[in-house]
Amino acid sequence: MKGLNVMKEFIFKKIDAFATMKSAGNPAGYINLDSKESINENEMQQIARELKGFVNEVGYIYKENETTFSLKYYSSEREVEFCGHATIAIMYDMIKNTNSLINKPEINIITNKGKLIVENQISKKDAVFIFAPNPEFRTTKISKEEIASALNIDIAAISVKFEMSIVNAGLETLIVPINTLQSILNINPELDILKNFCLKKNIDIIEVFCDETYDKKCDFRTRVFAPTFGYLEDPATGSGNSAFGYYLLKNDLWNKESVIIEQNGTTDRFNIVQLKTRVDADGNIRVLFGGGAITRIEGKYILT
């Protein structure tokens, strides 16, 4: 009948990326599409908006060919240029549960940040590793006073041992060094104030870090704030920690094969993000972020 709404059904999963036995990870929605034409941008935004508070972002994936897939990402607020934790969640689940992919050493994905490689390390490390987009370093300077005010912290909590920097490895990321682990755990900004600061400075996310960790096997503690995407904190981040990885390389702070990051605002129930490097086909050193994921819910999503 003319004017009658048509329902659409999609295969849906809620998957927590970077989760450990002690932590909850970062929730992502996963919509597996039959084709690019199965859904439009307004519908992708609608689903992400309906899932606000349940997942942080929704990733949409469809097959280009047997080893290449296209990905789009949406938060409740807007399209996300690149979402690391959703990529980990989706590719870990897809590779692990697809017979034709489980033995493939590499898979290609196409995103708004270009074509990227996914390393299949599930059999060895129970993880997948994603090539982060090539980094872009900004020359924009932001004062410590502005950052401290936006984060609702004392300016003395910002470390003088490391520099602040803006790096884009998928998202425009302001990297802020903090003196101590306790100072990082104490950060408690107000969402609206931090959102206005980020919008004014054209920043997607703020990553704070220190080299003091709860687990001595880890190298850094980070927290990531993402108010422009409709929520305050991202508990485990691929793109933000990739920007941080490029920051470490640029400042000669990466002196080992891999870097292990504990992330979130709890003392001992943190998520784990792994970073490593690899030289790409053009001879550039690239950061890869890696981890596993746990599927919590699967079924159908009904869009009306």
A few lines on this structure:
The protein is of the alpha+beta class and 304 residues long. Helices cover 21% and strands 37% of the residues. It has 7 helices and 18 strands.
Structure description:
This protein has helices at residues 41-50, 84-96, 122-125, 144-151, 181-185, 191-201, 239-250, and strands at 8-17, 26-32, 57-65, 68-74, 79-80, 106-111, 114-121, 127-131, 136-137, 165-168, 172-177, 205-210, 220-225, 233-234, 258-263, 271-279, 285-291, 293-303. With 304 residues, the chain is an alpha+beta fold. It folds into two domains: 8-131 and 292-303, Diaminopimelate Epimerase, Chain A, domain 1 (Roll), CATH 3.10.310.10; 136-290, Diaminopimelate Epimerase, Chain A, domain 1, CATH 3.10.310. The two termini are 15 Å apart. The model has no long low-confidence stretch (mean pLDDT 95).
